[in-house]
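Sequence only, no structure available. Ideas?
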Amino acid sequence: MTTATAPERLRDQPMSDPQTDDIIEEHIGQKIVTVCARYMYWGVLTKKQVIDGQPCLLLSDAVVVEESGAASSDKPVRVDPLHGSIVIFMSAIETICQPNWSQGKLPSEE
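Reply:
I predicted one. Tokens follow.
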């Protein structure tokens, strides 16, 4: 008999609840930063959707933030534009935030 590890068990569980859904809905149309295990993504939160039973977020005008610098800065130090939208599964997100620089111009707006 094999026992699933905690991450495998959690992978099958939707990472969503009514309170989280309300917070996400309040930020639709706003610029946000998602911090995932490997990268930070910055873009406009376009919508929340479900793919294969897993909740995810769609960010438009998305960029990878390679070096953010101070949260109080006017812009991040270095970004890599993705030239489009990306889908990020909620299970991959460690945190969602809006540092000061996240409200500045995205590369697509310059």
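The longest strand covers residues 54-67.
Hope that gets you unstuck.
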